[in-house]
Write a structure and sequence with these properties.
The protein is an all-alpha fold. The chain has helices spanning 2-6, 16-25, 35-67, 72-76, 78-84, 89-111, 124-138. Helix 3 packs antiparallel against helix 6. It is globular and about 50 Å long.
């Protein structure tokens, strides 16, 4: 759902594509790098988005037919969705990683922000699993 939202085609949605369009208009507002370097980073990002399009299309189909809206055809034949919108964990991982790389590169050029993107508390499950593993071993 998160990656689908980043590349949503719904009118008015805040997306990676709109961010790139806005960055192109505001290329002189970037604090780091020359205008040419920033323009090149934006062009590279557009290229990555285009390369991700087959994966993003599968993500969109899965989101629209199963996750966000339950399509009756999906309920009747869930295997058809899997065949029609092929998506592997490595594909999904690639979409997240390449999107993160684009955002970090442009954020760094814009205001100097850098580092991996994480949700606060996004690794809470690790602590829960570690606690469970310790209890299991102690029991």
């Amino acid at each position: 759902m998160a990656i689908a939202r980043l590349y949503d085609k719904t009118s008015g949605a805040v997306t990676v594509q709109k961010m790139l369009a806005h960055a192109t208009l505001e290329v002189n507002s970037f604090n780091r790098g020359t205008k040419e370097e920033v323009s090149e980073a934006i062009a590279d990002s557009h290229k990555k988005v285009a390369e991700l399009e087959p994966i993003l299309e599968s993500i969109r189909k899965r989101r629209n037919a199963w996750l966000a809206h339950l399509d009756p055809r999906t309920v009747a034949d869930p295997k058809a969705l899997a065949a029609h919108a092929k998506l592997t964990i490595p594909d999904l991982d690639r979409a997240f990683k390449e999107t993160e790389e684009m955002l970090i590169k442009l954020s760094c050029a814009y205001d100097g922000t850098f580092g991996e993107l994480k949700f606060i508390g996004g690794d809470d499950y690790e602590t829960a699993l570690e606690d469970t593993a310790c209890k299991v071993r102690l029991d």
